[in-house]
Amino acid sequence: MSSGTPRTSRNVVRTGVSIFAILFILVLSFMLGFSKLDSNTQVERKNVEVSAKQSKQDAKSIPKEKDLSASPENSLEEIEVEKNTDTPKPEPAPAVNPAIKYVTASILNIRSGSDTSYPVITTIKLGQQVSVYESNGSWSKVMVNEQTGWVANQFLSDTKPVIKEPESQKTVQKQAPVSNPALAPAPATNSTTEKQTANNSLADGLKTVDNNSQLILVTTNGSNTNRAVIRTFEKNSQGQWLPVLTANGYIGKNGFAASKKEGDGKSPIGKYTFGTAFGQNGNPGTRLPWRNITNDDVWVDDSESPLYNTWQSKSQTEGQWNSAESMMHRLYTYGFVINYNTERTPYKGSAIFFHVGSGPTLGCTATSANNVIAILKWLDPSKNPVIIQTPIQEISKF
């Protein structure tokens, strides 16, 4: 038994040594493997750091660009504009070839807009040239003396009116109020302005009114329009014509006629005296001969009748005409007879009146009731009043 014990001990020791050796080898192998893995990790980490540094250096060397993909509206033009911080100057308006027109009113307002409610910028005179750049309904945008504004179309013409220049400059009375805001002159500030207003009036250039002291002047821009300007003038003690009233009005629906015919819808061109004043509401205060209209009153327009172009009683003359106009007409509330075709030449035209109206007529001249009444009150037979009706382009004939 004693001899077996050392052998067993030696076997145990050997076995222990073997186990220890195996464990040592395993531990050593593990440590060597871990060391190698850590070395590879450090190498990879260094490579990543080197790569990151290189990327940063590359990024520094490349200039930054605007992100065009973030907003598709961005463009190179916008980028270029952003570089320029100065406010861009507006481009000049395209050049427009203006139409050349001439003023047909004695004094015409230029306004800041295309309506009489706009303030007056300045005024221009008869015959003055303007450049028309734009139209808006019955108004035109013009330029004159480097100023632009709006004027009423009816006071412009393609041809320049021929007006006789005044021979002298005399002191005159202040101009009476003007009813038409499109023509009303700016307020006079001194006597010089008043002289210019009077001496530049249309009446000063007329040659056929030396024996008349009151004048109604009805003018149009051409023969084919029915819109008219009605002006009244009175001669002062020095023989100068002073404007009294200016208003818009109408003539025959087909314009003016140098040789009028019955039923042509035109007003006669010419110089005429006045006949009877009339109305349906009593005499408003005129000094002309006055006649109240009744339901029996007619004006004969039958060219074949011996009563052609006369005022008659319907009940007393029936059978003597085939056609006559009732004087109880809605437009004949106030008016007066224009002495046209007093020879009563057949088919030459009849019943030519100056009466109330707000539109074209069949041959008469019309304006508002207030204007007709004002003119009736103003007319004085002792001053030999007359009416001249003409296109503004033919005013030199009178």
What attributes does this structure have?
SH3 type barrels; five-stranded antiparallel β-sheet; alpha+beta; 398 residues; single chain
Tell the overall outline. elongated
Structural class: alpha+beta
Quote the distance from N terminus to C terminus: 176 Å
Portion in beta strands: 25-35%
Instruction: Outline the low-pLDDT stretches.
Output: 1-5, 59-95, 165-200
Helix content: 10-25%
What's the story with the biggest beta sheet?
A: 5 strands, antiparallel
Q: What is the number of beta strands?
A: 22
Average predicted confidence as pLDDT: 78
How do the SSEs run, as a string of H and E? HHEEEEEEEHEEEEEEEEEEHEEEEHE
Strand order of the largest sheet: 6-5-4-1-7
SSE topology sketch:
Blueprint: H1 4-61, H2 76-83, E1 99-103, E2 107-111, E3 120-125, E4 129-136, E5 139-144, E6 147-152, E7 156-157, H3 191-199, E8 214-220, E9 227-235, E10 241-250, E11 256-257, E12 267-268, E13 270-272, E14 274-279, E15 290-292, E16 297-300, E17 311-313, H4 314-317, E18 324-326, E19 334-338, E20 353-356, E21 365-367, H5 369-378, E22 386-391
Parallel strand pairs: 8-22, 11-12, 14-15, 20-21
Antiparallel strand pairs: 1-4, 1-7, 2-3, 4-5, 5-6, 8-9, 9-10, 13-22, 14-19, 16-17, 16-18, 19-20
Structural summary, described in words:
The protein has five helices and 22 strands. By secondary structure, it is α+β, with helices and mostly antiparallel strands. Among the domains are: 99-157, SH3 Domains (SH3 type barrels); 201-397, no CATH class. A five-stranded antiparallel sheet has the order 6-5-4-1-7, with no helix packed on it. A five-stranded mixed sheet has the order 10-9-8-22-13, covered by helices on one side. A five-stranded mixed sheet has the order 15-14-19-20-21, covered by helices on one side.
